[in-house]
TrEMBL record:
Signal peptide: none annotated. Its cofactor is Mg(2+). Belongs to the FPP/GGPP synthase family. GO terms for molecular function: metal ion binding; prenyltransferase activity. It comes from the Bacteria. It comes from Actinokineospora globicatena. This is Geranylgeranyl pyrophosphate synthase. The keyword Membrane does not apply. One of its GO terms (biological process) is isoprenoid biosynthetic process. The keyword Metal-binding applies. Keywords: Isoprene biosynthesis, Magnesium, Metal-binding, Transferase. Pfam families: polyprenyl_synt.
């Protein structure tokens, strides 16, 4: 059962545009201030702004916004503008995560463009500066990622929210930052240990993706609207399951998706040594079936910087043949169904329930 409310589509129908507007205005103010104090750093900040504004689906602000709307928040007006500012700051946390993740994984491409550390290494080489270009690129990426995280806090605090609502939403905000960093650490730890267990891969998915991509943004939006504990719990349960399903879909896209769509080379997860659930299931089934040669081939691909296209293709074939792809698809389906049950059990103002269900399907559906 859904509650009804009068709908103003001015923000609902063009949410990404409004998020972009808030981010652009905020980043320009901060860039101008930095350029005045330190022109050279102002130039570096321009690259961060270009990265933030240069792509992305704005998933996190979207989930937060629709939790706000579902818990009774208005679609327009001064309070809605303040909420929009607060949830737009989620994109700066995302920028921090991506810039640092690309550096840790030594990824060369993001959204079809050079990653931040690669961009600044190239800048160093072009200008003939002292030291090594790789070290300079890494330093720049660390600092700009840190700046994005600091400015995320600043942008959130700058939102003209009622003090009690700001304090309530600060709980998921603070938890989200820590969970995102914990998930990143678990990711690199799993790679370093060579942990192939399903439990380890799911823990990374839960902490690195589900918590800060879906669950906590929903929690944040609901808290901003003053939602009760029952609504918050239902939205968090929905978000936790959809968030993991979203990561599992992303793992499949990383292995089988169109590079023009994903913006990253095929097989990047293999080269980076990612112990995804897909690989965990594939390796486990190969070992159980006594297919030692197949298991050895897949293990040799993990973390191999010089991985060739033939090995990538053979690994893809093996994961299908071993039933790993089908098993991951099954888990995505089960998680999505569980999430939908949690969402259906809570009373939300429309159209938020339908929109959130649609977002869940869009985030987890198979590529056509």
């Amino acid at each position: 059962m859904r509650r009804t409310q009068v709908i103003d589509n001015s923000m609902d129908g063009a949410l990404a545009v409004h998020v972009e507007r808030n981010l652009s205005a905020y980043l320009e103010r901060r860039r101008a201030g930095m350029a005045e104090m330190a022109p050279s750093f102002g130039s570096a900040v321009e690259s961060l702004a270009a990265f933030v504004l240069g792509g992305g689906k704005r998933i996190r602000p979207t989930f937060a916004w629709w939790a706000w709307r579902g818990a009774g928040g208005a679609g327009s007006g001064p309070e809605a503008e303040a909420v929009l500012c607060a949830v737009s700051a989620l994109e700066l946390i995302q920028a921090c995560a991506l810039v640092h993740d690309d550096l840790m994984d030594d990824s060369a491409v993001r959204r079809g463009k050079p990653t931040v550390h690669v961009e600044f290494a190239a800048r160093h080489r072009e200008r003939g500066w002292l030291g090594t270009s790789e070290r300079f690129g890494a330093a720049a990426a660390i600092l700009l990622g840190d700046l994005a995280l600091a400015w995320a806090d600043d942008m959130y605090v700058s939102a003209d929210l009622p003090p009690d609502r700001r304090a309530a939403a600060l709980v998921p905000w603070q938890a989200m930052r820590a969970e995102m960093l914990a998930g990143q650490y678990l990711d690199v730890l799993t790679q370093a240990k060579g942990d192939e267990s399903a439990a380890a891969s799911l823990s990374v998915a839960r902490m690195k993706t589900a918590a800060y991509t879906v669950e906590r943004p929903l929690h944040m939006g609901a808290a901003l609207a003053g939602a009760d504990e029952r609504v918050v719990a239902a939205l968090r349960a929905f978000g936790a399951d959809i968030g993991v399903a979203f990561q599992l879909r992303d793992d499949l896209l990383g292995m089988y998706g169109d590079t023009d769509v994903t913006g990253k080379p095929a097989g990047d997860d293999l080269r980076e040594g990612k112990r995804t659930l897909l690989m965990s299931i594939g390796l486990g089934r190969a070992d159980a079936a006594g297919r030692s040669a197949d298991a050895a081939l897949m293990r040799s691909a993990l973390g191999n910087d010089n991985l060739d296209s033939a090995t990538v293709e053979r690994t893809r074939e093996l994961l299908v043949d071993l039933g790993a792809v089908a098993e991951v698809e099954c888990q995505i389906g089960e998680l999505t169904e569980s999430a939908m049950r949690a969402l259906g059990g809570v009373d939300l103002a429309e159209p938020a329930g339908d929109v959130l269900a649609g977002l869940a399907v869009s985030a987890t559906k198979r590529a056509s």
